[in-house]
Structures are given as structure tokens and as C-alpha cells.
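Aim 2, interim progress. The first record below pairs a target sequence with its C-alpha cells.
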Amino acid sequence: MSELFDAVDALLASRAVLPPPAERKRLRAAHGLTIDEVAGALKVRRATVSGWESGKTEPRPPERDAYARLLDKLAELYPVAAPAPAPAAETVIAPEAPVPATFTGVPDPSEIRPLSTGPASEAADMTETENTQTPAPVTAPAPVAAAPAAASRPGSTTRSTTSSSRRPGARKAAPAGGTDPRFENGPLAVVDVEDGKVLAYCVGGLVLDVPAKSLPPLVEWTLREAKLGQPKLSGPGRPADPLLVLTEAALERYGLPTTLTAQERDAGRIPEGHKVIKQLTRADWRLTKRGFGPWARIYRPAKGSERQCVQLCIPAWNALDARFWGDAAQLPPAELARVLGTFAMRVMTPRGSTAVTGLELMTALHPPTHAVRDEETGALRQADTKTPGSLGSDPVDCAPPEAPDGHPVLNALDLPRFHVRGPSEKLFEEAYDWARPMTDAECTLRFLVGLDVNMAFGAGANGLTVGLGEPTHVMNPVFDPKLPGSWLVDLSHVDLSHVKVGKEWVALDGSLLPSPFTPKGDRPTGPAWYATPTVAYAQELGYDVAPTEAYVRYDNGRYLDGWYTRLRDAYLATMADLGVTTDLSPEDFLMAMDGYKDRDPELGIVITAIKATIKGGIGKLRERPRGEGWRPGERWRALERPTWRPDIRAAVISRTRINLHRKIVKHAAFTGQYPIAVLSDCVVYAANGPSPLDVVPYRDGKPLPGGFKLGVNPGLVKHEGTQTVLWGEEVREKFDAPELNLARSIKDGTVSTADNGE
């Protein structure tokens, strides 16, 4: 009989009820679990769990029963919020349900840096970093519709308006299903004044009446009545603070200047003695160390779990840098609310510049600490140890070769004054900037075609194992491609004329290829410091490596996976809204990309901001001094952040450069075509035709495995631009530079040194 019971139990387990794939992912993310953690507990591969969450596959016994049990327990902890009753016809339009974002909270003033002192400083450490892997299906929000035209201006007779304390009895829109009722009006509002009335424009066309006469009451109203903010982005995290964007009219209404003086722009803030700051002080509000600048944070110390913090964004003070936000600062309030709201719901509520936001997103997905329950009192408290998988709360000094010039860790080396460190002393992992003269055969072709890798550097972080803790110094180590670190090794023996492509050795013209080991594409001449992906690629090409020294990190993990996924989903969802989807044929993709931003310029701004968030976030991992009277050998403010990690930046850039070189080598082995220029994530080839299809080989509709492929997914390529071979020769002759990098100008043919944020 027991055997029959066992058989019945097995039969029941084989049909264990599971929630839909999207709900499986939601439950895992709500508890802060990674796919790797679930896979480890169920003793299956990571790809297996990913397939369950995407709906591609279904679990089988015995894993199905255990998986169902896990999801049942998580569903008890994180039930889906029941949708509120539908609003009556006269109620206002409900804002679009925000995607869970991150908590910003009341910051520790010691962790906040002053604002950058000029436009150039924001791009100083930026480097775009993306990946070659094809992602799972898009799981980002549904397409974001434009705000209703009638609701875009407050004078419209059909404008949807919700009163706050001015009309306490007014009915408000019901939150969309599953939306946290605390934040039913969305993550942010653009505050404007028209006809003497202060109005707050929210996402989805919602407009709120604002009763506040001065800034302190505006902050109070935002926290108590506006219902702005976002749910937490990760299990251990906390909800995001509301963001108010003040137009010039709102600045005048609340006694703030509409423009900053030259001295205030340099300082990044208005003077401490300004009357508005005095008003805030009298009302017991505080400012962070960055002061009252383009991105100001106004807060009171937290009391228990209650957070009291509001962030201000002031476009008139250059909070929305045109290099990264286009003409967003000039948009009307409703349209600006749509742009920033879409970005906030798909990425996170902006915390400052796109670079700052990119870095804050990393922390939001891996909070340094987490709440634990006191066994004696049952109360929740913050853990003293760091959250597993995070960088913790304390900064970590980098290894000497990873340190930029002037870092205090170099003081112990007692280097001669004005000494310039070379590759054997300093880690040089940077993006490509390489070009060569065209061959005679290439000069007979008609066109130069540029290919650009989608999200190349940011997605290069996907699946990358990086260090989470301090480096360990090792002499004469055995190289381990799975161990993140910096390695001193001689790779000058790697000959690109004879390399392995897959499992086979192939013969190439190495003189027409950039070296994968240096940013300028020069072949190494001796020992140099490299990040793990670079050394691993030398092995992949078929050559032995023998490091003499290394700084490795035994505490490591895939810290950037969630960061990449969040930004990838935001990018793909927004591109889909613009008509560029992941299922297009190469020909249809090229047609869809033609003028795609013009179809919805506001969403075009969102795409630009998403890409800038990727670039800036990676760059901020090695932020340099921003003035402040700093001198070489002294610490600077950014070093006090746990996220000041030049080793992680180097690893991402290394892997991205290697991913691109791998495609170039496979393309050369398959087609005999070699690039004439490479700049960051753009590659230029000479071709007989003007289209990328004249460069990228397709056979029976299928691309070269591991080579270039046209499409919107990260790691695939799009058309950067086409010029004639004659144009290229004329430009190089004009500047008397046979190796001028034509990739820099291939997009529109304009040769310029203007700063475009790249």
C-alpha cells in the first residue's frame, strides 16, 4: 500500500500548480533572491531557472514540487496587491503603474558628493560598457502612451485635476492593479505655475493642485499628501523618495533664482545664506553636503522606519544636461513628466546626473545592509554585516596597479617625482581607439560602413564575475579565468596571424587587426597588467599565459547582472515603443531604425538617457577628484564610497573590448574582411555597398555564429553610418593623418573635436 501512496504523491507532485512565469520572477525578486541562489537550492542549472521564469520550459519532478513549495511560501510573504475599485467617471486619470524602482531614502550626508562643477566634469570618467549576449524576452512595462493632449496644459477644460489639502474631499484616481497605494500618483511630479495656480504634473496625464505657498510647505505636502515615490527595487531595499522637478515659474514662485551666477555654477549650489535655505532651516529641514544645487535633497533624520526626504530637480540650473537628456529641459511640464516618469518607472527615479543614477542603481539592486529580526525583541534592525552579493558599507582600497595617478595607495611605492607609470606598473584597460591606413584593395571599394554594437559596454557587465571585497597579492600565480583580478603577464608572444577560432587554428593577416590587449591596438612589447577577461582571451586564442604577479579577489560574484538586466529591459521596452522590436528580420530592422527617434521624440530622449546611465555608471566606478583643493597623494571624496571600484570598471571594459575583438576575428576568418577603424563600440569596414548587409554575412537568413548580427538586442549591431571611400581618403589627406580614426566621423561625415559626452 505504501508504494501506491508514493506513486500517488509522485503523480500529484508532477502536476504541482505553479503561478505564471512573470509571477515566478516577481516573487523571486521580491525576496531579493538571484537566479543563481534558486538554482543552487534546487540543484539545477541557472539557465533552467531562467527558462522557468521566461516560460520557455516547465519544471519536472522532483524539482517541480520543491519549486512550487518555494513559490507558495514567497506568495504568502509577498501577495499581489488587490486592485482598488474602478474610479467613477468624474475621477481623474490614473497614472500608469510604475515598475518597482529603488529606495533612495534619507542619505548619509557623508556619502553624498558635491555636484560636478561644470559640464565637462560629468563626462570625464564616462565610458560606455555593454555586452554581446542575447537577452531573454523583454519583461519591461507595456508601451508608454503619450500624455493626453488635453491634460498637457492646465488651462484645458478637460484637464484631469486632483486637489490636495485645498479640497480634502476631492476623489483621487484609484491606483492601477498591483500599484503600491502609498505611491499611487507615480514616482515624480513637475511643478509649474500658470494663472497664479501651482500645479504638479505627474505620469499618465495626472495633474494635482498644490496648496503650498513656500518651499517648506511644498516639501511637507509632497511627503504627506502627494502620494509620490516608488516601491523598493530589491528585497533588502527600501522605497524611493519622491522627486519634484521645478520649472522656472515654480522657482520664481518659491523665491529661488531662475539662473545661477558663474560663482554659483562653479560651486554647484546657491549660497548657504539664501533666504529659502533659511526657511528650510527654520522648519527643521536639512540639506545634504551637496547643498542646494541642481539636484538638491531635503530631509529630516529618519524616525524608525519613517523616511522623510524629497529630492528636487532644477532643469534651469542644468540638472538635465543636454548631452544626456537632449532638449528635455525645454519641454512643457506634462511632456517633461512623461519623459522623466518613463525613465523612472523603467530604470529608477533619477538621483542626479545620469552617471550618478547609474551608480545608484547598482547600490539599489544590492543594498549594502539588510534588515534582520532581533531574536529577543522580534523587532527589525539593520544587519552589521554586508548583504551577500553587495559591496558592503565600507570602501575598499584598490591594488597599486589599479590605482589612477595621484591615488594615496601609490605613496607607499616611493615613486620618483613626475614618474610616468608604464604598462608594467599600471592597469590600462580602456575602450578601443584604433585605426590603420586602407589597403590598395580596400581603396578600390566604394563605401565605408560603420557598425555600432548595441549597449556594448553596459551589457558587457552581464554574467561578469567581479570582485566584491579586498584584493589579495599573489606571486607567480596559476592563472584562473574564473577568478577576477589584475595580472602581470607577458602577452607579446600572441600572434594574431595564427590563432584559434573555436577549436580550429586559422591563418589571418595579423597586420590588419588591432591587438586585443591594448586600447590603441598596438602589440604588447613585454609584461603588462591586465584584467582577467583579457588574459583569458589570450588562452582562448590558443596561447599559454604565465603571470608573475597578481592581485586577485576571492570574494566575488556577478554583482552587475541585475543592473544590466534592469537597463536592458528598459532599453528594449522603449525601443519597442518606437517600433524597433526584437523579432524583426535584418532588412526590417534597418528600416525600423531609420529615423526611429523622430516617431516619438520624448521616448527618443529616454533612450539617450538610458544609454548615458550605462556609460556614466561604469565611469563613476573610477571617479577622479573634482577640485576641492585636492593634491596628488591625498584622498578625495569619491574614495569614501564602497562603489569606488576601478577594478570593476577595468573588468567591464576589458570584457567588452574582448567581445568586440572576438567578433572581428570570426568575421575576418569567415569573410576575409578586416576593419579599418574601431572606436569604442563602433567598427568601420570598406564594402562594395552602403548597407550593413553588404558587410554582415547572412546565409539562408542566418548570421555567422559568434560574429556580427543585425538587431536591437544588446551585443547585436545597428547601422552607425556610411560614407564613401573617397570621403575617407580626403579627410585623412586634409588632416595629414593616414591613421585618423574614421569611426569617430562615420555617422554624419562631420570631423569635429566637440565634446559629445562619449
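The second target in this work package is listed in the same format:
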Amino acid sequence: MTRYKYLLLFCCGMIAMSLASCSKYLDKKPDNLLTEDQIWQTRANAEAYLNNVYTGMRGPDGGDWASMGFSDETSVAIPTVGVRFMVSGNWTPSDGNNWDSWGYMYGFIRKSIIFDQNVDKVPESQLSQTLKDQYKAENNFLRGYFYYQLLRKYGPFVIVSKLIGQDEDFTKYSRGSFDECVAHINGLMDKAAAGLPGVWNSSGNLGRPTKGACMAVKEKVAQLAASELWNGNPAFANFKNNDGKQLAPVGYDVNKWKIAAKAAKDIIDSAHYKLFTNLDNGGSSFDPYLSVRDLFLTTWNDEIILGSIDWSRWGYTKCVSPGPGGYNMYNATQNLVDAFYMKNGRTIDDPASNYVETGFAQSDDDYDWGHHQGDWNMYANREPRFYAYIAYNGRPVVPAVTVDDKNYYSSDNNINGKGRVEFYYSGKSGQKSAGSNNLTGYLPLKRVSSSDNIRNDVTAYRSPYILIRYAEVLLDYVEALNEYDPTNPDIVTYLDMVRTRAGLPGIETTYPDAVGNKLAMRKYILRERQVEFCFESDRCYTMLRRKMLGNPENQTIYGMDVNANDQGLGFSFTGFYKRTLFQKRVWNDKMYLFPIIQGDLERDRSLVQNPGW
């Protein structure tokens, strides 16, 4: 592995965000060539400052650990990246460079406060009061969003309402309780929503928050508060500040699920959002594959509630693409592959699903996007999302434009213009090749476009990195309803909206016994989340808030047998398709919250460390 590839991984994972946390923690202005007075004299400088605050709301947080490597859906090929240390249990409060974002978020919270305190200084001739009010609303949203990122990763945070000088006594800044932190975020979102529209009329404002985005963050906070991690978790019974203040709620309250359900339903009833389909993209007839694929490839659409354009599309595509053009770095797992439904809407362990584990498919699928003759039967007759989101051995490479580009990914005896990905041992993307190799036999396809040519490092502008989307609100709603009112018909109605867009029959058709059964329906709701939101970090945060990530089945990671020597047999080598243990990860329940790094604890003696660290 060359030094360049290591640096590339850091780029595409955006680990530089964490490395910069200390230096950004006390930044006072976006451009050190300007004095503070100069910043607030022109519209251009004030807007540049706000744009700088926006950069804190970028794509994957803290080195992409949540969507690439910490949950059971993915791993990273290079063993020296931070998330690989984390899942091996090798991380402490003293080595947070690869995952810490506490100081990074507070750096942007500080910038947000500075903007709030100074934007009114801009002369009216430069910036109208209407725009000032709008920008202050956006800024309040951003600050609330940064606090939300802290809450779901670290738990209760220090509520800061004014600037803190470098020489100030840090010992007086202790953490607020969980409920106080929730109230603070909700207050900022309410304040922001009062100055934001439901929908922006100009496309030039796409990417700015709306009332719906404020509602969505409040809904996500309510969901977090209702889930097992924070709703009467006995492990947090002694989680207190130094003065004895209780930081976590003590008892379970089912009413918190009602609050979360109402928050989601309010977004649904706002009627500003809908599930994207290919019909919104010029299609003449509904196609589930194009619908779930192109959701991530259009510039903006009505499913996106909150998105960020500040992410590296090229870096991501390079990392998830097969060799030799890509780096094979982000690997999907067999755990995730097994979670996808068959196209009849049934799970692969259901005898009625018609799932076949072994052998090669003898014919092409009826759909253009499905399996092909010669694919392993494990990949045959699966649901549309499987083919849109997973690259498997023999699947044609996606980010290759011409026939010559596709042939570039094929060994000499496989050149046929299709560019079938060769993950087997001697293949071009196999373990025998030089560099970073695929470790599970799978790569993500979500967000990867056929108009890209990663061989030549060409990626086109596409959708923003989606942070919150409408499908998430729908599944949040049914999850919350199921916890306190499992017979509510809305559970089937809104769950089936997501399944129908994915080309699956309704849940009451495939699994009628689950309807009205809280435990059975919970299983299908969480499975739907696992599939629908794969590689979007939802799996990680869902397993954390529901205290499930530490379950043995979620720490035992499988892939294909990529190390089995095919002896030149290539795609016909059946030994590749043996489920093989890739990782038995190390887990400790303290990992449900991230530690605050030692430097911040030493700076603020009132800070208490998270339990177990």
C-alpha cells in the first residue's frame, strides 16, 4: 500500500475533520487576513462566514466510521484505519484522532455563536434585515444540528450559549442532563423553524434547511430519547456529574415513543415530501430498480429533507469501486447481503422464498437489472435494492463508460465488454492483486453512477450526501407506533409505502402473522431499515440507540472465501462462495457511547467521562 493510497482513504473518509478539531476549537474568524470588524462590514464576508459554519454539516461524520466499518454491514480493507482499531477494541480516550469529533463540533458551535452575535453589525445597505433574519434562522438550525451530532454520539453535552475565552475558567462547564440537551436542541430548532420556509422557491437555496429539516431533527432526537439506550437504561443509573447531577433518565417511559411517533407524523402531514420514484426523473412507467438507484444520483428531489454538498463524490466512488480502477476499500458484508429480501418479498431463511444457496443460475432474470446466467444462485431472484446497492462477484462494473473501460476490469480470458467484477483470488480485484484488496467479496454500489469513469478518476456532479430523507421518517413513524400501539393500521400503511417503492409486496401479504404482533413486526421494521438505509449510517445508529450492536450476531462478520485459491478457474470456482468468518469483533458495552478525549477532560475539569471509559 503506497503512502498515496493511505492519504486517499483519509480524504474519502474525511478523517481530516477530526484531526483538525483542536486547532478549530478556538478559531475566531474564517479568514485570518481579515479583522473581525472587516468581516461584518460587507454582505460577501458575512455570507462567507455563514458558509464556513455550513461546512460543519458535511457528509459522513468523524471519518465515516458510522457508515463504513463500525456496524455489521461494512468493513474497511486497510487494517490501519481508525474504525478497524475500534472494532478490535483498540481505542481509548487518549487516541481519538481517527474518530473524535467533540472538539470539532464545538469549534463550529463557537463559529455559530459568533455569527449570531455579529451579523446585525452588517450595514443595512449591504445586507437587508430580511436576509439577516433568514441567515440567523439557518445559523440556529446549524447549531442545533451540531448539538444533535454530539448527543447521539457522546450523550449529554455541555450547553454553551456564549463565547468562551481561551483564558476562561473551564472548570465551571459541566454536562447538561440528557433531557436538558434534548430541550436545548428542540429550542434551537423551533427558533430556526420560525424564520425558515417549508420549501425554498429558488433552486439556488437547495441545501439550506427548511421547517421540515427542523422538524426532522426534533423527530430524530425524540426517537433517540425513546430508544433503549436513553429510555431507562440501567447501565446509566450512576451516570452523573461531579456534583451528583443525574445525566441520564432513570425510568422507562413508553410515552416517549408517542412523542417520537407524533413528531414523525407531523412531517408526513406537512405534505412537503414524498418517496422518489423514476417517474419523477422522466420515466414513463414505474421501475423499482431505477427508483431506488436514482434517488442517490439526481441533483435534488422531493425525498431529501436535509443534504450536504460538502463531500467528496470522487473519493467515495474511488473507495467503493473495484480494482484496478478503484481501491476496493469499503467492503459490504455477507451479513448485509443476507438481509436483502427475495423479489417475492420474503427473507432468505423462509422456505417459501425460493432462495437457493449454491450452484449457478441457468438463465437471466426477467428484469434487465437482475441476475445473469452464470451468477451464483445466492444472488439470483433478489429484490431490486440488492442489485442497486451491492457489487458481487460477477456483477458488471458500474463506474465504467465505454466497452474498453469495462474490459479494463476483466482478465484476458473474461474480456467480453461487460466488465464482470473479479473478486475471486486470482481476479483483477482479488486477493492476489497488489494493493488494497476486497476482504469480503462485496462492495457498495449505492451512490455510484454509470456515468462515472473511475478508471480515469472522472465523477459527475450528482445528488448531495443525503443526511435525512423521507423514507427514514416513514420508518421512524412505524417503529415508534409499533412500540406502544402495535395494532395501529398506520404501521402497515407506511411500512408498505417503502416496500412498494422497492418493488416488494406488502408486509400483510408476505407475513400476515406479524401484523399486530409487536415483537415480530419490530423484527421486520428493523430489517427494512437495514436494507433501505444500508451505507447511510442508519444501521449503526439504530443498533446503538436500541442497544443491539453488541449482540453476538452483530459482532460476528462474514464474507465470501476470498482467500481460497481458484487455481485459475475464475468465475467457475465454487470454493469462493463459501460463507467465511471475516471478523469476530471485540465489543464492550461502554462502546454504546464514544469517550471524550483526554485533552478535553483535562481542559474542563467539570467534564465527566462516559461510563466505562
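The longest strand covers residues 304-308. This observation will shape the mutagenesis plan for the next reporting period.
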